[in-house]
Each structure stands twice: as structure tokens, then as C-alpha cells.
Design goal:
Elements: H1 35-87
Amino acid sequence: MDMPSRGPTPTPFDPRPRPVVAVDMSKTKPREPDPGTWLLNKIDIREQGLTCQIEQTQAQIDALTTRLRELQVSQGILVETEPGLFAQPHP
């Protein structure tokens, strides 16, 4: 049985245009980084991430400390004025 033809087979002197294919003509491999440099880069990236987390955590601690002080002041005002409220005559 004959196989169905998928078109004419190209010959070496086929005048039809062929698709252009990009080919890397350089035979050299891209230079891989030194293992020590790679490790230092990973450490630097991790250190930057930790520094950012430390800054965010410190900002949160500062905000919570400020809020705690505000609540302590509010509580102090309430404790100091509570006896005075009951001692005053009612209208």
C-alpha cells in the first residue's frame, strides 16, 4: 500500500523559500559562575530578605509599644477619676 504523499520532497536546489532559523554560531558555552560566587550571591539575597523582615518587625513592635502606652494612660485616667465620679453629688 502506498503512503499518502505530504507534498513534494525538497531537493537541495529547491527554489522555494525556506524558514529562517536562528542559530548560535558561537561554540563557547556561557560562562557559569564560580561556585563560591554563586553561594555568596545566595547569602546576599537571603540577608536582604532578613533585613527587610527585621525592619518590618521593628516597626510593628514600635506601633504596639505606642498603643500599649496609650492604653496604659487611658487606664490610668479611668482609675484616677473613678472614685471622684462616685463622690460627686448627683443632680
